[in-house]
Amino acid sequence: MVEKVFEEERQSSSQHLLSLENAKQIICYPEYQVPNEECYRRIEQLRKEGAKYLISMGKVKIGKINILGKGHAGIISAALLKNGKIVAIKIRRFDSKRKSLEREAILQHIAALAGVAPSIYVFSKDFIVMDLIQGISFGEYLERKYRECNKDYIFLAIKSLIEKTFVLDCIGIEHQELSNPQRQVMIQNYDPRKIFILDYESAKYTSKTSNITSIIGFIIGRGRKYFHLNNNDLRILIGLSRTYKKTLDISRRYTILNRLIDILNKCHG
């Protein structure tokens, strides 16, 4: 059923293919600030990097074009490559304070090699061409399963996120945007075991990573409604968060990780 839905979406999206010239308002956003020569340079660069069309799809609109996302630094659009593959492209906004997307792309590439982030095909200071994760945002998934009273799938999704976040801690990437992971995380094919962490715009390399504490903060805050956490559980979670942040020993952190999952497993029923 899921595969059928994706195929229907793919076929319908073919009706909304935009030539790169016709997608200028996305590639050169905000277009009114971009000199014509710079806009044409971007279009040619994107063409050289393998893009054939942009695809109008997603829940965000710029003019009459649908996109996947819009942030302070960039626009995310679906695109069709010359080889027929549908991908996501992050396009640096012309009015962004950031001069390049290269640092973000390198950190995401490292996270992708660890199985945490979408794979990157090519990048430059203005573009990141990456895998398009088809599925549902973490926040939407949790709300849908909450309405369905499907607590097992909520637990599986959060457990998967905790495990992927622990991987980020192990490879030394501090994401910095996971205190509210509902939009920065995608669930591929609606499978709670297939979690991908997006958006490495604010990420940094550090020897003192503590992404797990952000997830614990989410659980005892916005995510509290998904679990039957009593006051003692909350005290334990806060204590685990503090201990995790203070220690850099991987084996001790792994023990804390398993303790956290055990508590959530007990409280999700």
Can you offer a commentary on this structure?
The chain is of the alpha+beta class and 269 residues long. 43% of the residues lie in helices and 20% in strands. The protein is built from 9 helices and 14 strands. It has helices at residues 2-13, 24-27, 36-48, 102-113, 138-147, 151-171, 211-220, 231-246, 250-267; strands at residues 17-19, 51-55, 60-62, 65-67, 69-70, 74-81, 86-92, 120-123, 127-131, 135-137, 173-174, 185-188, 195-197, 204-205. The strands form 4 sheets. Strands 1, 2, 5, 6, 7, 8 and 9 form a 7-stranded antiparallel β-sheet that branches. Strand 3 (60-62) and strand 4 (65-67) form a beta hairpin. Helix 5 runs antiparallel to helix 6 (151-171), helix 6 (151-171) packs antiparallel against helix 9 (250-267) and helix 7 (211-220) packs antiparallel against helix 8. The two termini are 28 Å apart. Residues 1-14 have low confidence and may be disordered.
Instruction: Calculate the mean pLDDT score and round it.
Output: 92
Shape assignment: elongated
Number of strands: 14
Count of runs of 4 or more consecutive helical residues: 9
Distance between the termini: 28 Å
Which bin fits the share of residues in helices? 40-55%
Radius of gyration: 20 Å
